[in-house]
Each structure stands twice: as structure tokens, then as C-alpha cells.
């Protein structure tokens, strides 16, 4: 779960159809949220959503932006202006809000909508909104049309983009300067032009690791197999999609030398068809079919055998004798750590939103993490790695 206190300042009709959902999503992520809506005569935030509704949605009493003092800004971890309207711009130009905001010294994230792509926000003495904001403020412009009913469309950032920016502004930067390679998802081993061998991995666990590492300041290379889930879009995170175990092996071999850390969470096929047929295999009259298979390269073992490799973390997906089998893999593949997954336990392993892992090291007792969301598990694994890096 993310942590931090946010002050959201909404205005106008976007309050109703955008900012309210933003409040929901930020709270669901774990943030504590206060709303300071605009409350002037006209299409203000409180004209569209009452103070009581904002307080109910956010779980905190709400105070109109016009009545806030400096302490109200200072007690926050992040000020979120969303979306900024011409009216919010003039509130900051004319009232005391700007000096409070500047004196509080808190990071600011401003969501800038585009009503008409060519019409910028009004200027004050030739200064733009960006110039008005304290140095280091982040401005997020919109690219996704959000319908405001009879009021037309606004181009606004997706909620995913806003959450990613909030997360990265509030996350500890304890991985800053580190380079991390992560493998995720399944591999697909082609049998013919239409069929392939694969497994149940969705990429969720590996993506959660990549996301958390990037938010904490790492430069992340995410090598992933074919998955339905879109790869996280974050600064410092580069997705590198591949298909087969051989391609994943090649991608890792091309990039391992630049890395401080490699976490291999992919479910890589252990075998691939001996040959991939050029045309679709016909069933004919056959009642049975045997497929000759050959071993794929073991990426983790290959890295483990290198003399100057990055800090190496594997995963072990086990269905029986979980810890004993994971211990064997830890030693055989020469990892620094291995995360043992009991894939038969409810809520664990493949295609779940949660996971429970035990972190094994050659020189320490097992560390049993509780069942948590994959995001939280990723965060705990990365914190444990950092202790040892
Ligand atoms: O993607 P999700 O749906 O979120 O599911 C997450 C997960 C269950 C896939 C993940 O938590 C997990 O356990 N990943 C490892 C799955 C696996 O293939 O485990 P394994 O015990 O077969 O392999 C051991 C280790 O060797 C793994 O780090 C694996 O990436 C690596 N390996 C295996 C074979 C191979 N040819 N090359 C490898 O690098």
C-alpha cells in the first residue's frame, strides 16, 4: 500500500466526472486525502459536488481552497491541482493561496487539461501557469478525452498516469542510481504458425517488481514474455518484450553487464519443440501425437555461473516440498536470494493479485512474508534486497 497525505484542489465540471474518481483511486491505493474544492458563485467544484460529498468520498473534512491557510498546505506530503482550470489559475494569481503554497515547500503535481488544444490557460503579466508554480512542480498534460456530458470533452491524463506520478513523487528514492533487470511473464514456444506451448504466468509479479523499483528511483529494464497486461509506463522503466525462452535468454545476455541487480520472476519454459513446423501441423487420422522437445537455456543458471554477475535473485514456483526444493534451486543456480512460491496455496503464484513468498538466502534463516498484494510483496522483496546489496 502506498502512504502519504495529499491535498486535492478540484474545480469546475471536471470535479464531477474526473476528480471524484481520482479521489476513489487514490484512496484505494492507500493515500490519505483531503479535498479543498473551489467554492465561488458559478461552476465551482462545490457547485458540482457538495462539500459533504467531498468529505464523504475522501474520508476527511473538506475546506474550500479560498479558506485555506499556510498550515493546511504544510501538513501535506503532496499538493495535487486537478484539473487546473482558468479559475484555479486566477485564485493562485490573486489570493494568498500562492504564497502559502510556496511557503509550504511541498511538491506540487498539476493536472493541466486541454479544452481546445490551441487555447492555453490565461497568462498573468506574461507568465504562464508553469512559471507561477514553485520550482520542481510537475505538470501533467492530458491526452485522453474525458466526457463531461453536455459540457463537451476535456483532454486529461489517464488515472494510471496520475497515480504513477503521485507514487513516484512520494516513494522513497532508495534505489536511485541502481540499474535493475527484471524478467516477467511466461514464454511461448512455437510448435507451428498457430500453436505454442506456454504457462499460466500473467506477468503481474514481475511487473509489480519493475514498477516498485522504478518508483524508488532505479533504472529498470523489464524483459517480459507475451502477456495481456500492459507493461507499466513510468519514467526510468524500459519494457523489452520477447516471445520465447531463447529470445529472453538473448535479451538478458545482451544487457546483464550494465546491471547492479537482476530479478528473474519469469516463468520460462524448460522445454521447447525440437522443430517449429513451417506450416500448420495436420491431424490426419492420428489418434495420438508425440512432440519431441529439447531443453531451453536456463537464464538464471547461466547468470549464476558468471564470475562478475549482478546481485542475483530467482523465483521458485513449487507445488510440493516448497522450501526444500527452493533451497536446491538457490544453490544449484548460484543465486544470492530466491523467493519460494507455493503455487498450490490459494491466493499464491500464477494469475493471482496476491502472493506469499519465503525469501531464502544461502547464509540466513528463511524470511516468511505474509500473504499480500503482489505490489506489497514486490516492495518487501526490494527492501530485503536493498539491505543486502
Ligand atoms: O506472472 P504471475 O501470474 O504474476 O505469476 C507469478 C509467478 C508465479 C510466475 C512468479 O511468482 C514465479 O514464481 N516465477 C518463477 C516461475 C518459475 O518458472 O519458476 P521455476 O521454479 O520453474 O524456475 C526457477 C527460476 O529459474 C526462476 O527464477 C525462473 O525465472 C528461472 N528460469 C527457469 C527456467 C529457465 N529456462 N530459465 C530461467 O531463468
List keywords for this structure.
single chain, alpha/beta, binds ligand PMT
Rounded mean pLDDT score: 92
| Count of DSSP H/I helices | 13
Oligomer state of the chains in this structure: single chain
Percentage of residues in strands: 15-25%
How large is the radius of gyration? 25 Å
Question: What structural class is derived from the secondary structure elements?
Answer: alpha/beta
The number of distinct β-strands equals 21
Main sheet properties: 8 strands, mixed
Shape: elongated
Strand order of the largest sheet: 12-11-8-13-16-17-19-20
In whole angstroms, the N-to-C terminal distance is: 24 Å
Explain what this protein looks like in three dimensions:
Helices cover 31% and strands 23% of the residues. By secondary structure, the chain is an alpha/beta fold. The strands form 6 sheets. An 8-stranded mixed β-sheet has the order 12-11-8-13-16-17-19-20, sandwiched between helices. A 5-stranded parallel β-sheet has the order 2-1-3-4-5. α9 (204-215) crosses α13. It is elongated, with a radius of gyration of 25 Å. It binds ligand PMT. The site of ligand PMT has 29 residues, from α9, α11 and β16.
Sequence-ordered SSE layout with sheet pairings:
Layout lengths: L4 E5 L4 H16 L2 E4 L9 H4 L2 H8 L11 H5 L3 E4 L4 H9 L2 H8 L3 E5 L16 H4 L5 E4 L2 E4 L5 E4 L2 H12 L8 E6 L4 E2 L5 E2 L6 H12 L3 E6 L12 E5 L3 H11 L5 E4 L6 E3 L19 E3 L3 H6 L6 E8 L3 H11 L4 E6 L11 E2 L1 E5 L2 E5 L3 E2 H15 L1
Parallel strand pairs: 1-2, 1-3, 3-4, 4-5, 8-11, 8-13, 11-12, 13-16, 16-17
Antiparallel strand pairs: 6-7, 9-10, 14-15, 17-19, 18-21, 19-20
Helix pairs in contact: 9-13
The structure holds ligand PMT.
The site of ligand PMT has 29 residues, from helix 9, helix 11 and strand 16.
